[in-house]
Amino acid sequence: MSNKSFERFREIVFASASMQNELLAIADRSEFIDRVVSMASEHGYDFNREDIVIEMRDADAAWVQQAV
Amino acid sequence: MTGSIDDFREWVPVRIFRKDAQYFVEWCHLGEQRFDEAYFGDTIRRRMRIPFNRLFRRNTPVASLEEIVSQTETIPPTGFIFHISRCGSTLVSDLLASLPSNIVISEAPPIDALIEMSRDGDTEIQSGAALKWMVAAFGRRRWSAEQRYFIKFDSWNTLDLDTITKAFPTVPIVFLYRNPIEVIVSHLRKRGSHMVPGALAKQLPELSLDVSLSVSVEEHCARVLAEFLKSALRFSSDEQVLPVDYEELPEAVWGSIADHFGVTFTGGEIARMKERSQFDAKVPQQTFAKDSDSKRATATDEARRAAKEFVDPLYEQLKKKRIKGRP
User: Fold this and answer.
1) Residue B55 touches chain A, beta carbons under 8 Å
2) Cα–Cα distance, B218 to B215 (Å, whole number)
3) Which chain B residue lies closest to A61 (C-alpha atoms)?
4) Is B177 helix (H, G, I), strand (E, B) or coil?
5) Do the beta carbons of residue B130 and residue B25 sit within 8 Å?
6) DSSP letters along B194-213, please?
7) Contacts of B131 in chain A (CB under 8 A)
8) Is B29's CB within 8 Å of A20's CB?
9) B83: which of A17, B93, B99, B234 lies 20 to 30 Å off by Cα?
10) Coil, strand or helix: which one is B36?
11) Is pLDDT above 90 for A31?
């Protein structure tokens, strides 16, 4: 999976209130990752669990490092 | 820009960051969550536990703030709260936040970042305009009950009163202060980030890391507090700014502070704030007890010396102005 393809999927989620609401309702991390993988698949993106774990890790690192 | 402007209603700015020589706002999904905790960061940390916010935060260029806030109903700021730290400011913001009719943004990093950029005259973005947009972004009405909007700034933003009063010349300001020895003792027990040597060296070159490390911890704390008080004193004759002593809390929240902010609380709202004031604002599970006597009793000789030499005269000046200006 390329980082850019996940960025494109992010845009799809940001444009869809129903996708956001469904994902927001999931509190369990593992369940959340599974649903992101299946939701992405429904939109033609082939991500696996490890891809999403890496994306979350990168987002966490950015959160820690990027503040002005 | 990620997503359309309309989609930002349930999102809040959580920070400013720089990437490829451009400044961005990062947004977190707040949903129905109110800012009802002691600090902005507490509420955001809680929301960041949701897996969605770990993976799906949004980024927009800072300039997009203008368009985002222009398409949403916003409440103009009702009042600003400045303070010297450890002086009851969290109590004030916590009591105000206990009312659903109030939006209270307490020590929000995106606001602090833009104040710093305004002070530095950052020309890469319109930092002064961006500060106004950011303040407006937090004042977007998300609940119909919301009528008023208060911002509690970081203590070190007191050094930037000039920048803030220029940007918001008509917003009433309350400046909270306390007997300096009590504030110093509090910082000696648990140091605030601004009391770390060199932390404020950009705003206060006279307290560079070298200087800060060459004096006692007590003197460093006293000199930082002295600079906060000097800044407040420059504005204390201004009608826009009301100095309030820790000793006047909590009653001042529904008394002189409410009057200064032009706010009339209902009997029910005052009762709610009185009830909340029974508990510690920073540790809500504990009942609140004033600890001025114990703080003064445990002060070291060096803390007393530093307070007397650097801060007490300024504290007395502010107290005199407060008493003189009291209605």
Assistant:
1) yes
2) 8
3) B54
4) strand
5) no
6) GGSTTTTTTT-GGG-HHHHH
7) none
8) yes
9) B99
10) coil
11) yes
Question: With 90 as the cut, is the pLDDT of residue B20 above it?
Answer: no
Q: Tell me, what's the ipTM?
A: 0.94
What is the structure's pLDDT at A39? Answer: 97
**DSSP assigned state of B193:** G
What one-character-per-residue DSSP string does B88-127 give? SHHHHHHHHHTSTTEEEEES-HHHHHHHHHHHTT-TTTTH
Tokens describing residue A57: 């890790």
Q: Which candidate from B15, B52, B113 shows the least CB-CB separation from A24?
A: B52
For residue B121, with 0-12 CB atoms within 10 Å meaning exposed, 13-18 middle and 19 or more buried, which class applies? exposed
Query: Given this model, what pLDDT does residue B122 score?
Result: 65
**CA distance linking residue B166 with residue B278, whole number of Å:** 37
Q: Pick the residue with more confidence: B66 or B327? A: B66
Q: Do B52 and A20 touch (CB under 8 A)?
A: yes
Helix axes A17-24, A3-14, angle to 10 degrees: 100
B32 touches chain A (CB under 8 A): no
